[in-house]
Design a protein that fits this description.
The complex is a heterodimer of chains A (291) and B (431).
Chain A (H helix, E strand, L loop, with lengths): L1 H34 L19 H8 L1 H35 L4 H9 L6 H12 L4 H6 L12 H26 L3 H9 L4 H12 L1 H17 L2 H6 L11 H9 L8 H31 L1
Chain B lengths: L1 H22 L3 E7 L5 H17 L3 E7 L5 H10 L6 E3 L4 H8 L6 H4 L2 H7 L9 E2 L2 E2 L2 E2 L2 E9 H6 L13 H13 L3 E4 L6 H13 L8 H6 L8 H15 L12 H10 L3 E8 L18 E4 L11 E6 L2 E4 L6 H11 L2 H9 L12 H4 L5 H11 L3 E2 L7 H16 L4 H12 L4
Parallel strand pairs in B: 1-2, 1-3, 8-9, 11-13
Antiparallel strand pairs in B: 3-12, 4-5, 6-12, 7-9, 7-10, 7-11
Classes of the chains: A mainly alpha (291), B alpha/beta (431).
């Protein structure tokens, strides 16, 4: 009886959150999935008027800019998962074990860009990277960084890393603070040197934190839009497009193709990518746990 | 606990009902466009709203402006959810087809009375305002789309300004660009991230060499009815290639938009001229170069392919307003839009340096003698004889292919031949 009452009350308390989750997450997600099989410009009241089967998917498959966007997205994800996580790990170990006098200040400075709106960050970096911007003034160059198709994605990765590295660092720092110091003290007695302690004790113990950071950065990488939109709007000529900006271009851009159905199919591709990686992570984690 | 929840629920209910009743106290007409930052439009609408609210004391007009790049983020969800504003602007081109076909717009051919139609005059026949022989949009402002230059900078570089109505050739712009570069300046500020900044100039280049004028050859080519492999299309592409490859604008332009970056840098005098500008910015022009005593800015059409090219202008209407067919306040919405087309409204537009679309409703000579010298030139330019270039097309995908092709040509990853071949293939031109 008590159990039944508890169950009812629990459900009652969960209902508002469940309702919000269903209405604002699940329903739009499913609608978007269904929409990817329809020709919908975004203006029609009846979203599901013109069924086109897999035409929207064929369209993006045949569009070379989709493949550029896909490649760029994976590049950005790679940057977020490996470069950002790697640098954050090095910095956090350096700050934690460095016993600096102004450790808190250093961490605050590194974390500071995280509290800025990505749009502001994009605008500031655009000013820096412009042909008549700060960087060229310092280097004495007249180079168009953001119009170089070979450099533009790496610059976006750099700006993205600069903004979010503090976030990864704070998570790592929390992980370091929860480390069992006795293990390090024991290794001192055993005569372990500094690099042995870092590579054989600290980094392996930080593995769960690393996984957490990688997952958060991976999701962030797939969802990145603001930085790309503000810095380049996916240009020049779509060469810095990522899936999220490519979706926006097809769905909303002024002077764009006006095809929200195609945008929905791109959203489905993003969803499929994240789902595949999430499932892979679960399988790998379970195997690691089993072993 | 249950009592507390009940109390909270009842409180929320009372507040909601109370607010709903409060809201019902007056009728609200929602008007939306994308003219954020265009001072002339903003000021003129403030006058329209004031007058409309004075004439209808129980009505409030809510006017919201979005930026040109974010407008559809608002409009699409609003219209598709059936919660659209009573009066709204629609981007000229493919969007008009979509919005008309979705049944969102009132047919003004049926709804407008004779007085209103009289004010609209020949505007009723502007293709961009209607579809299928019916009028759906009421034009607000008119413009010539062109290049603006600082007179003193042209003089400093040792060049002479062309006669009013004439323009420089592509080669002359190359020479100006090189001279400007030597002084650390740009020949032209250019914001091609906004696709119309590329396509409208292209349309002008093509029309200069259109042997069948006034036939809209670009429209036919977009439809795949004529080949792209013709000198007029090749020369238009080559004109762009020449301007870009010779550094008339900076390489960085390829990541610049027009409205904020290119315009801002031109205001800061980093470039001699600004490409793809228009009369809509008269009210935002640098005040020091547009005083009642002297005008330091010259407007001219797009570069001529050659010295012998005919004078060719891009003239069009800017903001076009439609009335939501599902508006709960249809009559009031129609009345508001009618007001914006009245002779009084045209004078208000002109007073704020915005060229009204309904020029038939105003005294042109009086308009062109205002203390705003740049505005007077805008009026004169609009009245200048020459070829008129259509800049609004409905063929969204062919326009995308052309734009992408030109941008890739700027980057050096595609050629004129490749663009011509792709356009013929994609538009389905079969010979």
């Amino acid at each position: 009886m008590i159990y039944k009452t508890f169950q009812f009350k629990t459900l009652l308390y969960l209902l508002p959150a469940l309702f919000i989750f269903l209405v604002f997450n699940v329903l739009p997600g499913l609608t978007s999935l269904v929409l990817s099989f329809f020709d919908f410009s975004g203006f029609e009241t009846n979203l599901f008027k013109k069924f086109v089967g897999f035409d929207n998917f064929v369209k993006i498959y045949e569009d070379k800019y989709f493949w550029i966007a896909l490649k760029n997205t994976f590049l950005l994800v790679f940057g977020a998962v490996f470069i950002q996580t790697g640098i954050a790990l090095i910095l956090s170990i350096f700050i934690f074990f460095g016993n600096f006098k102004f450790s808190v200040l250093i961490r605050s400075i590194i974390f500071f860009p995280c509290v800025l709106a990505p749009v502001s960050v994009g605008l500031v970096w655009k000013k820096i990277l412009e042909q008549d911007g700060v960087l060229n003034s310092i280097l004495g160059l007249d180079f168009s960084w953001l119009s170089s198709i070979s450099l533009v994605m790496w610059l976006i990765i750099m700006v993205n890393t600069w903004q979010w590295i503090g976030y990864s660092l704070v998570i790592y720092y929390a992980g370091l603070q929860s480390l069992n110091i006795e293990l390090l003290e024991a290794s001192d007695i055993d005569g372990a040197n500094w690099s042995q302690k870092i590579f054989s004790i600290v980094i392996p113990l930080l593995w769960p934190t690393t996984i957490l950071n990688m997952i958060l950065n991976l999701i962030g990488g797939f969802r990145a839009f603001d930085i790309v939109y503000v810095l380049t709007r996916g240009g020049p000529a779509h060469y810095s497009e990522v899936l999220a900006s490519y979706l926006y271009y097809y769905s909303f851009a002024a002077g764009g193709p006006n095809k929200m159905g195609v945008g929905a199919s791109v959203a489905f591709v993003i969803f499929a990518c994240i789902l595949t990686i999430a499932l892979a992570r679960i399988i790998i984690s379970k195997r690691i746990e089993r072993n | 606990m249950i009592k507390n929840i009940t109390k909270l629920f009842i409180s929320v209910l009372f507040i909601t009902v109370g607010y709903a009743n409060l809201s019902k106290a007056e009728t609200v007409i929602k008007v939306v466009d994308w003219q954020s930052g265009v001072g002339g439009i903003t000021n003129a609408y403030a006058d329209f709203i004031k007058k409309f609210e004075e004439d209808h004391p129980d009505v409030k007009v809510e006017y919201t402006q979005y930026t040109v790049t974010t407008y559809n983020e608002y409009l699409k969800p609003a219209l598709s959810s059936g919660q659209g504003p009573d009066v709204f602007a629609v981007y000229p081109g493919p969007d008009v087809d979509e919005v008309v076909n979705a049944g969102h717009l009132v047919n003004l051919s049926e709804a407008a009375d004779d007085e209103w139609k009289g004010w609209l005059g020949n505007n009723i026949n502007i293709p961009e305002l209607g579809r299928n022989g019916n009028l759906y949009m009421a034009p607000q402002d008119a413009f010539t789309e062109e290049i603006w230059v600082y007179n003193d900078m042209i003089a400093d570089l040792g060049f002479e300004l062309p006669a009013f109505g004439d323009s420089y050739t592509v080669d002359e712009w190359v020479a100006i660009g090189k001279a400007a570069k030597a002084k650390g300046l740009d020949g032209l500020m250019f914001g091609p991230v906004e696709s119309w900044c590329v396509l409208d100039g292209f349309a002008n280049f093509v029309n200069q060499q259109n042997d069948d004028y006034p036939t809209d050859v670009l429209g036919l080519a977009y439809d795949g009815k004529i080949s792209w492999d013709q000198p007029m299309f090749r020369d238009a592409l080559n004109a762009y290639k020449t301007l870009h490859d010779n550094g008339v604008w900076r390489e960085d332009s390829l990541s610049m938009d027009y409205q904020v970056q290119a315009w801002g840098k031109w205001i800061d005098r980093e470039g001699v001229g600004i490409y793809c500008n228009g009369d809509w910015f008269i009210s935002s022009a640098p005040a020091d170069y547009n005083t009642p005593d002297s005008l330091g800015i010259t407007m001219m059409s797009y570069p001529k392919i050659s010295k012998d090219s005919p004078a060719t202008y891009n003239k069009a209407t800017g903001t076009n307003l439609g009335v939501n067919a599902n508006s709960a306040n249809l009559d009031l919405a129609l009345e508001f839009v009618k007001l914006t087309n009245s002779p009084w409204a045209s004078s208000a537009f002109a007073g704020y340096g915005q060229i009204p679309a309904n020029l038939a409703a105003v005294d042109m000579d009086a308009l062109a003698a205002s203390p705003n010298l740049l505005f007077n030139d805008g009026i004169k330019m609009l009245a200048t004889e020459g070829r008129n270039t259509n800049i609004y097309y409905s063929q969204a995908e062919p326009m995308k292919w052309l734009y992408d092709g030109i941008m890739e040509m700027f980057l050096g990853v595609t050629s004129v031949d490749d663009i011509i071949e792709k356009m013929n293939k994609e538009t389905g031109y079969s010979g």
